[in-house]
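Run: sequence + adenosine-5'-triphosphate -> complex structure.
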Amino acid sequence: MMTVIGLTGGIASGKTTVANYLSEHGFAVIDADIAARKAVEKGSNGLQQISEVFPGTLNEDGTLNRKLLGSIIFNDKEKREILNQIVHPIVRNIMDEEKDAALKQGKAVIMDIPLLYENHLEHTVDEIWVVYVPYYIQKSRLMERNNLSESEADARINSQMPMEDKRKKADVVIDNSDDLCALYQQLDSLIKKYTSI
Ligand code: ATP
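>> structure
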């Protein structure tokens, strides 16, 4: 049976860069962020449930008012939990369907799940690859990409599980501290190893 690989890491550690390269090399990449958007798209069952539990969160055009929902759950753990209980199973279903379709086509599967450890999703994959960068590189790439101050970048990074903890838990560590050439070399050898199994 094909192995299902969970790809994770910290914010701006390079997961998308890695996922794009693997996708170009024949892997089916299933993206948790895209699935999360599909779960609450206009007309979806997920959005219907949210609007019933959190009245007023639909825009006039039938889309989700993310700003309002964000402000409702921001400082309210209980409401955040309720939202997660609605959204998480739908996201998991969408990802499972995409995974099954890819496996049927005989494709190797990468599940790109940024918060895999934070959301305790280890059991949903066979193997976990962590894209790792040390804190100072992570911070400088995040500041540059999102145009953030140092303290804003610190706050975003520190809201997640520390990179070092993710690195220790990983089955495979992809070190993205160097340039893209060094990254792609590591990926080439992983692809080679993986496709020769
Ligand atoms: P997020 O968690 O926010 O989704 P991510 O983990 O998917 O981020 P990327 O978007 O792939 O991270 O990379 C973060 C930034 O760092 C991007 O601007 C990307 O172009 C840049 N980057 C990635 N890898 C390298 C590298 N090896 N050298 C230089 N820049 C890089």
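>> summary
Residues 1-27+108-197 form a domain with the Rossmann fold fold (CATH 3.40.50.300). The longest strand covers residues 4-9.
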